[in-house]
Each structure stands twice: as structure tokens, then as C-alpha cells.
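Narrative of activities, Objective 1.

The group set out to show that a structural description can be obtained from nothing but a protein's sequence at a throughput compatible with the screening campaign. Below is one input-output pair from the validation batch, recorded exactly as produced.
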Amino acid sequence: MTSRSDTARERFSDYYALPTAPWDIGRPQHAFVAAGDRIGGRILDCGCGSGDLAIWLAARGHAVTGVDFLAAPLAAARDKARRAGVEVTFLEMDALAVGEIPARFDAVTDSGLFHSFDDAARARYVAALRRLLEPGARVFILSMSPAEPGEQGPRRVSEEEIRAAFADGFTVESIEPARFEVVPGIAGAEFSPGGAHALFTTLRRA
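Output recorded for this entry:
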């Protein structure tokens, strides 16, 4: 199984050791809720964290698999799903290895994972999605936009970078301005009022 770098594991483990990770707002990001009618079938939630988006999608009647490379948020996700009374399959694995999953999916959701990759990992992630998905499957990504000022938090990803990253094997259906809500009051995670500026991308496997 492919592994993320020890540095990435340590960074995200440190965030999950806080009382609340900055992105752990207790519900799906609004961009996914607004697009909910377009996200259906068998869904893979990449970088699912503590499971809020995966659980919300499962509660809407979809078959959902969530993947994350850390055990702690997955344990929280399984507990949340149990308390919500929904079934979600949670897998501890690196998102760069999702191309090895034998199941097939109609949609992939990515809430804040894509923008965490460096250039090399980004290319591997896209290649894994290309192997995983059959023509017609859709990918929904919420990522930090260059419109967000400052340098704190994850790297910003421009529309041009998104189009270039997915140029082979995917069709860009839309890239729309959005916001990425975070938990207030966490040092190093202070962003614009109303949520960090983001881009919500919809892609179709060609």
C-alpha cells in the first residue's frame, strides 16, 4: 500500500490531536450540500477525516466508502456513523492508493484533500482516480483558491492548475467560487470572514 510522507502524517496527526481540527466543523461543507442532488450512486469520499460528509451522503441513501490515512479520525467517523444509524465503509488507506480499490464508484468527493498535495503527489492522486473510475463517473473537489489572501493554511490551487492536473482522462464540467468554512479561533487557521475563499470543481471521467 502506498504511504503518505511521515511529515504529512505528523502534521495531520497534530491537527487531530487538537480539541477540534480546523476543518472539522461537524457538518459537510456548504458546497457539497448545494451540489447534493448531483452526487449520487456509489460514492468514494477521499480524505474523509471524521466522516461528516460521508455520513451525510449515506443518510441520503447512497452507498458510501470513506478513506483516510489516519486511524484516529476514522475511529471518530465510525462512532459518528453508528450514532447516526447509517452504514458507511471506512478504510484506512492512503488516497494515493485508491486506484487499487477493487470496487467501482459513480462519484468521488474530496473536501480539502487535493490542495494538501505537493506537485508529485497531486499527479499520483489524479492517476489513481483515473485508474479507479470508469467513464461517466464524476469527481467533486473543494480546494483553497488563490483568492484567499495570506499564506497560512493549505496551498492555493488555481483554476489553471486544476485544469492542467486533470487534462488527461477527465472533462472539467465546472469550476465555481465557493467558501471553505473552518472552526474559528485556531492559530494558523484564520481565514476570511465567511470562510476561506475556495473553488468547487466538478469533473467527469472521460
